[in-house]
Each structure stands twice: as C-alpha cells, then as structure tokens.
C-alpha cells in the first residue's frame, strides 16, 4: 500500500526517507564525524537483517542508510534502533550532518578535523536555519571532502616562511612540492608564493627548520553549494588559528540566521546582500 504524502513528510523530518516504490523506507543512521563504533555497526546490521534486506549503504555525507523497511515496520525499527543507541535524522531546513575528512590522522592534515567536526555537531546538528546548511571540514589543500562547495567550508592551511640561513639545499621540500612552487638555486630554496597552495608539506619535510609555519590554522569559506545550482564558496580572507575555527563558524551561523529569509541558503543571502557585505558583517561580529 502506497504511503500518503502527509506521512511521507513526517517521516522525512526524522531522517526516514520514502523510496521510489512509495512502499518502503530507508532509515538514515548518524555517524560521529564520519565514524561508527564496532558496536554501532553491529547494531545497524541487526536492523538491516531484521527489517530490511540484509544490507546498508553509505550516504555522501558519511551516514549509513538501511533501505527496504516496510511502512508497517518503521516505528518498531526506529524504537529498536533507539534502544540500541543509534541516532537517525539529517534532513530539513536545518544544519545537516557535518562532514570531515580524516585529516586528524592523515599525513597531510593541518588541523584536527575530527575534533572540530564533533564540536560543531554537538552545537549545531539538527538546529534550525533559514534553509538547509551544510558544513564541510578538510585538513589540507587536497580538499578530499570538498569544503568550498559546502555552505560553510573549513580548510586546514599552513603558510610557510623560509629562513635561507638554515637552508642546506637538500631539496627535500622541492621533491615534496606538488605545485612546483619551490626550486633550488645556488644551493638555496627559492619560493614562488603565487604557485603555493599552503599545504604545509615543505614545513613537514624540512629537517633544518629552514621552512617553518608562519601561520597555521584554517581558511573559512562561505556560500558554497553543489547540485542544481553550483557556487564555489568565498574565503573570509584570512587564516584562523585552530582555536578560532569554531568561534568564527559560530558567527557565520549567527549572521546567516539573522539576515537570511526562509528558503535562502547562505549563497542566496550573499547574492542578495552582496558577498563583500556579508563577509564584512561576519568579520565585524567576530572582531
């Protein structure tokens, strides 16, 4: 029997999504910064075996969905999942599940992406915003989680500084620089700032402290989106220290809630008020 539209909307608000046959649901279980414990995975399996068809799938925002749950079973499945400690949700005009790369343990990570993600999730996940709002956090310029096509994007950065008195011309930094921003001339490193993407690899590779971190933290992007409308987020224009990341995101969300009209994503607000004004107003709140 097909599910009526009213029930469909009620279920969607809970992260329970009607499938295209209009008879079955997929329940979206929530991770913590993209991670599930072994116990949680086992419990997802129990729900999938008992109420679905014995499998689950990953979403693009690092959650797990169990499909093929019958309408008559959905309340029982949700009650059992709750008793097992599983959370479900992730839709609506709210802060959506926050995505972070593995920059915390990755060789290239410049910030603790997982800790930042967990802190922001505890503060904001599922809270109301004028329209859906997606936050993405990456540890470096590799941008594996595509931070700048989220409404709010956080990208770990290291701006290098070079002390030629300590440079021995070994070339380790040159070999590690994918952007070809470094070269050795007369046994000293030459730095082309225009080619640099502030990934920090040269700082990590240097054994003599000739390359050091002048600034370390994150660049913050606002107004990105992807899908039916594509927009690359605009930078707030500076590097924020790691301890400043959550406070500046606080101000972005605060300002978005103040000036955004219902149905406007951050990109739409910026188009309406002007991106320079939006950014200046956010920074004035922070400073």
TrEMBL record:
InterPro entries: 4Fe4S_Fe-S-bd, NiRdtase/SiRdtase_haem-b_fer, Nit/Sulf_reduc_fer-like_dom_sf, NO2/SO3_Rdtase_4Fe4S_dom, NO2/SO3_Rdtase_4Fe4S_prot, NO2/SO3_Rdtase_4Fe4S_sf, NO2/SO3_Rdtase_FeS/sirohaem_BS
GO CC annotations on file: sulfite reductase complex (NADPH)
UniProt GO MF annotations: 4 iron, 4 sulfur cluster binding; heme binding; metal ion binding; sulfite reductase (ferredoxin) activity; sulfite reductase activity
SUPFAM superfamilies documented for this protein: 4Fe-4S ferredoxins, Nitrite and sulphite reductase 4Fe-4S domain-like, Nitrite/Sulfite reductase N-terminal domain-like
GO biological process, one term: sulfate assimilation
The entry's keywords: 4Fe-4S, Heme, Iron, Iron-sulfur, Metal-binding, Oxidoreductase
Domain 4Fe-4S ferredoxin-type, residue spans: 158-187, 188-216
Enzyme Commission no: 1.8.1.-
Family: Belongs to the nitrite and sulfite reductase 4Fe-4S domain family.
PANTHER family the record matches: ANAEROBIC SULFITE REDUCTASE SUBUNIT C, SULFITE REDUCTASE [NADPH] SUBUNIT BETA-RELATED
Protein name: Anaerobic sulfite reductase subunit C
């Amino acid at each position: 029997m097909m599910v009526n539209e009213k029930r469909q909307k009620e279920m969607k608000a809970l992260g329970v999504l009607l499938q295209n046959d209009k008879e079955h649901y997929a329940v979206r279980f929530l991770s913590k910064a993209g991670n599930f414990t072994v116990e949680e995975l086992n419990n997802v399996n129990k729900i999938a075996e008992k109420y679905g068809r014995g499998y689950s799938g990953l979403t693009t925002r690092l959650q797990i969905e169990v499909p093929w749950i019958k309408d008559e079973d959905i309340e029982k499945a949700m009650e059992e999942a709750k008793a097992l400690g599983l959370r479900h949700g992730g839709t609506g005009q709210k802060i959506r599940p926050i995505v972070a790369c593995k920059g915390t343990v990755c060789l290239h990570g410049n910030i603790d992406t997982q800790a930042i993600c967990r802190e922001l999730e505890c503060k904001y996940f599922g809270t109301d915003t004028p329209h859906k709002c997606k936050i993405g956090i990456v540890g470096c310029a590799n941008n594996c989680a595509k931070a700048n096509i989220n409404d709010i994007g956080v990208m770990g950065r290291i701006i290098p500084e070079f002390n030629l008195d300590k440079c021995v011309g070994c070339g380790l930094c040159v070999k590690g620089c994918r952007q070809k921003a470094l070269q050795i001339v007369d046994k000293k490193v030459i730095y082309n700032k225009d080619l640099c993407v502030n990934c920090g690899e040269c700082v990590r590779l240097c054994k003599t402290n000739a390359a050091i971190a002048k600034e370390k933290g994150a660049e913050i992007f606002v107004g990105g989106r992807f899908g039916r409308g594509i927009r690359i987020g605009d930078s707030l224009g500076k590097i924020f220290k790691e301890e400043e990341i959550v406070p500046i995101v606080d101000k972005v969300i605060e300002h978005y809630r103040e000036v955004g009209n219902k149905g406007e994503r951050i990109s739409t607000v910026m188009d309406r008020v002007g991106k320079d004004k939006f950014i200046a107003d956010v920074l004035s709140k922070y400073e």
